[in-house]
Fold each of these.
Amino acid sequence: MLSVSPARHGRVLGVSDHSVEVREHVTRLDAALKFMATALPPASPRPAAPFAGEPLLVKDLDLKLADAPLWRGNHVLREHGTVSGHDDPLGRRLRELGFDIVGRTKSAEFGLAVTTEPLAYGPVHNPWEHGRGAGGSSGGSACAVAARAVRIAHGTDLGGSLRIPAAHCGVFALKPGLARPATTPTLAAWNQHGFLASRAGDLRRMLPVLGLDRVPDADRAGTEGATRRLRVGVLTSAVSSAIDLGAGTVEAVERMAAKLSDLGHQVLPAHPRVLEQFDQFTVKTTPMLAGWLAEEVADASKDLGRPLTETDMEPGTAHMLAMAALATPEAVRDTAQWLHRLVMDLTAWWERFDVLLSPTVPVQAPRLGWFDDPDTAMHRTFGMMQYTAMFNASGQPAVNVPCAGAGALPYGVQLVGAHGSEAKLLDLAEELSPGEAPTPPVSGDRGLG
């Protein structure tokens, strides 16, 4: 996949041997799992930077890096070799902090799917079982971290796109929250940059990168990151009619609930009842999602130099884009008012509880192609998002914690906190699952130190 000889390139630019070895390591694993969209050449080292030389993969979707490819999972953008004209704020910060950005990982086209099987460059395979999906839309990043290609990878999350693939691949993921509930009639505030990692502690290291390093003293005990005794509500039932829970999913949540109780936390069967309005939530917000997609397509068209047409996209993307016509000013206003009431009801639950423990996804990773049938694809997509999407609307932080299953595939449980509780959630995740996430059958054969 690399278009240059790493060793020769390293001698010319003074790139470290470690950077060369990492790229070779990533390329070897990608040959088996197909998680890469494209590799990126090493940048000039910044030895004094806080994350100097630390390998990082970034998702091929929203993150802009000047002069680097940005294809958004679309075959036309890939064929034309479109690149970003500038760094966006996070892209610039990652460069300044010294990360060695190794390449871009595959994304579902425009981030719309909960699996990563774009026609532009083929499916990502789950490292736990070839032929299973890696989740989406950050499936390339989740797969790469699970396989130990890199320790940390970037992703984005509009309705679960970090947490869903993290659950399917068996890694930690953080969807950061907003400073306050997001009740505006635009999905731009719902779409959050975040990271996936093989250790919860590595996600904590990324909090300053996201500007989330200020932690209220009341949320920390002050000794080695330990959390105080928390009041935890547990949800073990489906909140959507689209997909019911597998028995193993329920067992995984109950096992983690028991562990939290053993750790001294107060654990009760409880959840915000408003989550049970999820089916109505999807109907109300789908036109808004289509409107957001129209803005993303328009931005991509600028990179391309011409408008993207319906024939330039996958059928599912074109179908969703056509629904943007339903997002009239009146419909958007009515939806915004409905969402405001829903979010107020949802977040009020955290006045009595500290954390919600739930499944991240209702079932383990399905086989590739499970979302192909146009008659069931949207139904199954929303069903997979039933525990994740409302917390994009509310702007609350959420963490996926990997959980080993009885079979080959992992499970994921989700921790959701009040606004500003990212560090608390990561502390709790580390209590639940200290150290490295489980290692899948297809993985790197050396450490990533």
Amino acid sequence: MQRRSFLTLFAAAGLSACSAPGAPTPDPMSSQPAAPASTAPATELAFNRGGDRPLPTKIWLPAGNGPHPLIYFSHGLTSQPNDYAGLLAAWAAAGFLVAGPKYPHTWYEAPEYNADDVVNQPADAQYVITELLKSLGGLIDPQRIAAAGHSAGAITTVGLFSGSRDTRLMAGLMIAGRQMAQPSPFAGPAAPLLFIQGKKDKTVTYEQAYGAYNEVPWPKGFLEIPDAGHLPHQDEPALVAATTTDFWRWTLNGDQAARQRLPQEVESAMLTSTF
């Protein structure tokens, strides 16, 4: 039998939830799976930081008039937001507004590709979040914002909770992520962070991901998937979608039932959980 592990300290520091003032009452139907991706339409907004950093940003819109929680997503090297459409649309179908830009020097058709430009992406992220709040007005609840990313996008997300701390963020998700080459300590107000890591990942190693996780001083979780590589969201799409959606329901909506489901979902997928 395959064994996977889910290590979590989400109950640490007395943080039972990060619901913002005015957050809606948790939906009793939230235990249902996320709706199919086709229910979440997408559009695109054109942003440009400083005039020379174009950041066209894909938006996955949930149903309803809002305000909705915002999940800001950062793609990996030689990638783009559409490459993660299944996962991002699942979050949108669960009621979250999801936005992800193409970073100017790391997306797959970048005119001047430069992997080292990842160090500038946290500032891009902060800029796009600010512009989204301006552009989408009442569609976004400014008190319920989170950040997520994969690979270099997860490194970007780590930056948003460390050296480039964005205090607007309530929670974060790192898929195959590690710290920057010159890491800074995690800083600012406590925010629950979830790491998802394939044990067979040779791009971002288990040791690198767990090293970043170990440095987090706040409630945190680490989901290890032994048979997954660098794309755990593709290797185990149902598990990753269900776990991350409930993570957002807890951290952004204050849904305590979703928090309690996290280890149950892990156990149902033949994982062991430890608190």
Amino acid sequence: MGEIERASDRGDDPDADLVRRIGQGDGQAAGTLVARKLPRLKALGARLLGDPQEAEDIAQEVFLRVWRHAAGWTPGAARFDTWMHRVALNLCYDRLRRRREAPLPEGWDAPDDRAGPDAGIETAGEQDRIAAALAALPDRQREAIVLTYYQELRNAEAAALMGIHVEALESLLSRGRRALRARLTEAGPNGDRR
């Protein structure tokens, strides 16, 4: 299993001072951390869960845990950002497990498909095709792609969060990219099957 990257291996943790201040009850530091981390945590949750509202719930729970545990944080063991991502991933996994265990109720509505932060880059149709192709991937491949491409984590960080070696992550990425390419090519530019 991969070890979570030590902050000392990368230099100082950029969030260490904020976390220390949050541990002392500084609400302004908490607001700064939320402003800095909220968009990425919501994007992670939305990509893994496919539901922006659930992603907001996940992010809120992460920040509640930050507030509760900041006073006990030990700098140098791991980057604080890595710990936050791990908490968010675990909360997403819990929700995904619950979904598999409970059937959807009758009359269930699909998640909100409004454009995300990358809307300026891709058209709505392309976003839908990519989201559908991403959702069709096996969980671990989807997780590897979301962490490296959407969360912009380095391979070592993503592997540590997933609890695997970098080589295993790279294998998941390779298989995931091939599957995405095949699915997107198969669907054609308008989403029509060729």
Amino acid sequence: MSRALIVIDVQDSFRVRPDWEHTNNPGITDKVNRLVRLARDAGDTVVWVLHSEPGSGDVFDPALGHVRLMAGLEQHEDDLVVLKTSHNAFTTTNLQQELTLRGVRELTTCGIRTEQCVETTTRVASDLGYQVTFVSDATGTHPITRDGVTLPAEEIVRRTEFVLADRFATVTTVDALEQRAREEAR
């Protein structure tokens, strides 16, 4: 069964936002690159998803130049790049068709924002019949304040892990996936 790594919104748009200084995972590119190496070593498809809001005039407007992968990410020219305009990577893209053409049935998800685009993509992928692995420590988010209450990033990640596990995805870490790959290589 063919697999794909889906890297969601690890793009400069987030780095130029004021709330980036509060992200729980400013070194996300290191963890993502470890996943990319694992995927490539296994012969898996690597998909880079970028969020784009053409004409919005904000950091997600491609005309401003921030809708690009963060520096240091290990992209190859044969990787698939998808531009989305919704919270998940499927609804406004041809991602499902591309995965079907490649025979992909298993997905690994990671990226920015844990509880928004990564969680939503994970849920939709599960609904579409994919077996999904959500790599929690290769996601990033920031605290959210609403109605005078702030939910810390760590709680947001924990909540996302809790609601995805055993329903929509297997929740794991980069270290655990690397360990599994070492064991399978023996």
